[in-house]
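Lab notes, practical 5.
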Amino acid sequence: MFYRNKDYDRPYTEFGGWNGTSHNGFLPTGQTAIFLLTQLNENPLAIPYLFGKDHWFYKNNILHIEGQGEGEPFLSGRLVVSDEVLAKMQGQKYEPEYNAGFPAKRIIIPLEWEDLVLPYNLLEELDDIICWIKNQTEIRKKWQLDKIVRQGYRCLFYGPPGTGKTLTATLLGKQNEMDVYRIDLSMIVSKYIGETEKNLAKVFDKAEHQNWILFFDEADALFGQRTETQSSNDRHANQEVAYLLQRIEDFPGIVILATNLKENIDEAFFRRFQSTLYFPMPDERLRYRLWKNMLPPAWLDKNGEELIQKASTFNLSGGSMVNVIQTCAVKLYGRSETILTLELLKDAIRKELTKEGKIIDN
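Output from the prediction step:
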């Protein structure tokens, strides 16, 4: 179809189409669709509607047009079948590849919701989020809230490191059969003007039609406080934050931001959050449950209960406890006797606390 028309000395244009970068064959465009459908006596004026945002092709992420140049006709763009549809046609689950075009990784863990150890009031707030995820359509319809309540859900998790923010976000997805994608901020943030916004747009555009949770860890690196404009750099940084505000507010899915310091998040975001959840350091009662859940039974003898009680007195986060258990596992590996002693456990705890700048006396 790319042969030249000898009568006009130019390529045939009625078919549309274009040459790819590496593919030398014919690749269809919107004009190709018009040509084929008009052969079936379809009204050509109605065809552009097939590729608009109101059509189910777009709403269900099946078929769309992209890549038309600025100022060029809409239908001159490439006719693209979504990667999701192609995956389904091959009997596979759609999971985008982690790369510069989609700087986000899916988080998968073997734990279940029942393994989550958090304060009771925090679990109640998480139950409210689950209720919205499962029933948002019915909730919006029941009281005609569509006009005032936006789709989706946006929340902030904040608190000290190792207190379960990432784990909770991942288990929220698992509990509700939703994939959780952690955004790689190192690939998002760029020193070049406009590039950060473009990188973010790739993530939001890809996720718009998916039943995913987008998780921004250490979110203050991207959603930080806006500053008084004193230079072009300040103005650019403020524009980035404004763009983030708009994309998060318009996103119809679930967005979770996590940070160790709530004060570093721009205040304008808090109006957009449906919930703000504080993850505290676990108290002694919760630390007991965490040790009880995590310590392998094969490590414990008749004095195991006493050992767990003693370990619970040390002010550690859940993440720090995992580090302690890993240290103990290395020390016990290869021994004929694998019972965890109080001395070995205290040595591992002392090592962890020293790393955090703390010292224990007992």
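Observations recorded by the TA: The longest strand covers residues 153-158. The mean pLDDT is 85.
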